[in-house]
TrEMBL record:
Superkingdom field: Bacteria
GO cellular component: plasma membrane
GO biological process entries: intracellular protein transmembrane transport; protein secretion; protein transport by the Sec complex
One Pfam assignment: SecG
Protein name: Protein-export membrane protein SecG
Organism of derivation: Polyangium fumosum
Stated role: Involved in protein export. Participates in an early event of protein translocation.
Keywords recorded for this protein, A-Z: Cell membrane, Membrane, Protein transport, Translocation, Transmembrane, Transmembrane helix, Transport
Amino acid sequence: MTTLLNVIHVIVCIFLILVVLLQQGRGGGLGSSFGGGAQVFGGRGAGNFMTRLTAICAAIFMLTSMSLAYLSSAGDRELKQFETTQQK
């Protein structure tokens, strides 16, 4: 389970980096350097699509981050419980 979450987390992280870099900001962004003025998604559609894609990737990234943190702390809780039972 942890391995699968790690793989998903890394893939989403790389994809999130690419999506953010491809967004067109005030200065044109990295997206304008690929193809110059060619519009793949239309004039306004690219902004909405990229914004939604960024939000979805960010949500998945946060979920996998919290899941991995919870799973890694589960071992700490078991160890702490084991230590308290050994001291009694």
